[in-house]
Each structure stands twice: as structure tokens, then as C-alpha cells.
Amino acid sequence: MMKSLDIFNTDWEGIEALLKTIGLSLAIIFAFYFLANILQKFLKKRLLVRMDDPLLANFLSVVFRLIIILLGFLLVFRIIGLTGLVSGLLAGAGITAFVIGFALKDIGENFLAGILLAFKRPFRVGDIVDINGMRGVVLTLNLRDTQIKTSDGKDVFIPNATIIKNPLVNFTIDGFLRYDFIVGLDYGSDYQAARALILEAIQKVPGVLMDTKTPKVWVSDLAESTLNLQVAFWVDTFDRKIADMEVKSQAIIQVLTTLEKAGYNLPARVLEIKNYRDQPIKSS
């Protein structure tokens, strides 16, 4: 009988207030979460129109989304009365803060490196880069890492701090990329005529630039069996109609076919053997 009476003595008003506070807190968190997502999409779209840089626009919109969510949590803390508690914990937990800060050092370092990369912009989405020996196409810049896709289809996530600390090679930032290959002519050939034929042949290859950057041919080396000519040409990395490797393949085929039709000999390595003692040479 006494236990049943205890039920009526329960502080129902306090429970009701607590449930209302919890419900309001959850509603605020969800509202700020959805608001942050909507504002992120809106901000990203506006930034893309203004700056034409998907990498920076995506990074700034993500940071803005996190700030909105953080404001939502701070508002919840104020409603449930944890503002003083949080301040006390932050003021009195020096050792704990040091330990947590040390444990999260890499995360903070990568976050700050991401901010530097977003504003310095050493690469853009679609650029071909080489980062610490890893070469691929830039897909996105996140708060912690940068995602690139290698030529064999692998997705590599490189910490932003690693990019800041190591040399970065961007092959396509200005829209021009040079390719070259070697052609070995037989000694005694008409070298000047061969150079002219090579230039004429490579100009017929689709994708080879002829205006701002022109093909070049020069003597690179006096090899054992051949006089080596280096053929260099440029492609437009902003033009994705023809892949760079396809342009290079067609250039090599076009040059070799033209030289062979003109009667030039392209020998392999020739090994010269001299017998000073006039003794028979044994061969297996």
C-alpha cells in the first residue's frame, strides 16, 4: 500500500520538464543539422558561381556546415544548463586537455593543412599531381585528407599535412603538359632531313599543340649504335577529348611510319666485337 502511494509522490512535474528539455534539445540538434546541410549546398553553389573553384568551394562549405552544427550544440548546452559545467571542465582539466590535444595532434595538423591548401590552391579538381611519389588525378579536398585517383583506378587518401610537408608536382595547373620520346637513327643517315620529316609527321597528329607550344626535335645523344633524336610536343590538359597517352601513342606511330616509308633505318643496339689475336670465336 505504501509503495503504491509513493507513485503519487513522484515529482511528475520535474520529469515532465526533463522530457520537454530533452525533446527540445533533440529538436534543436536535428534542426541545426538539416539547416547546416541546406546552407552548405546553397553556399557551395554560390561559391562555385563566384570563384569557379570546386575544391575551395567544397572545403569552405564543409567548414561552414560544421560551424552551424557546433552552434546548435552550444545552444543545447545553454538550454539544459551545462554552460557553466562545460566552462568549469575546460578551466580545470588542464592535464586532460593536454593529453587529448596530444592525441588529436595529427587531426588538428591535417585540418590546418587543409585550410592552407584550400586558400593557397596548389591544385584543382581534375589536376594530375604527384604527391610524395603518388601520382593521380585530384578528386576532392576534405578536412583531413585529399583524395586522388591513380591511373590504375585506385583511390588514395593522402593526409593534408603530408602534402604540406613534401614536394608537390602539378602537371596540369597551367593547361600545358609536355611529352617526349627518343628516335634512334642509323649513323650516316641524313639527319637534317629526318628532323624535318619528324616535325612534319608530328604536326598531323590530333591533340598536338601547334600555336602556343610547338613541337621540337633535337639531337640528344651519340649512342653506341644510333644518333638519338629527342622529339618533344605539348598537349592541352584542359581538352579532354583525346587522352594524353593516346596522343603520345599516335605521335610515335606516325613518326616511325613516316621514317620507315622514307627509307630510314632504325637499328637496335649493335654490339661490335674485335678479335685482336685472330683466334676463332666460340659461339653456342
Automatic annotation (TrEMBL):
This entry carries the following GO cellular component terms, namely: plasma membrane
Name the family.
Answer: Belongs to the MscS (TC 1.A.23) family.
Taking every annotated instance into account, which residue ranges of this chain make up the domain Mechanosensitive ion channel MscS C-terminal? 181-263
Q: How does it sit in the membrane?
A: Multi-pass membrane protein
Q: What is this protein called?
A: Mechanosensitive ion channel
Domain Mechanosensitive ion channel transmembrane helices 2/3: start-end pairs? 63-105
Location of the Mechanosensitive ion channel MscS domain: 109-172
Q: Which organism is it from?
A: Algoriphagus ornithinivorans
Q: Which residues cross the membrane?
A: 22-43, 55-80, 86-104
Primary location class: membrane
Transmembrane helix is among the record's keywords: yes
Task: Please give the InterPro entries that the UniProt record associates with this protein.
Answer: LSM_dom_sf, MS_channel_1st, MS_channel_C, MscS_archaea/bacteria_type, MscS_beta-dom_sf, MscS_channel_2nd, MscS_channel_C_sf, MscS_channel_TM-2
Record's subcellular location: Cell membrane
Q: GO MF annotations for this entry? A: mechanosensitive monoatomic ion channel activity
What are the UniProt keywords, alphabetically?
Cell membrane, Membrane, Transmembrane, Transmembrane helix
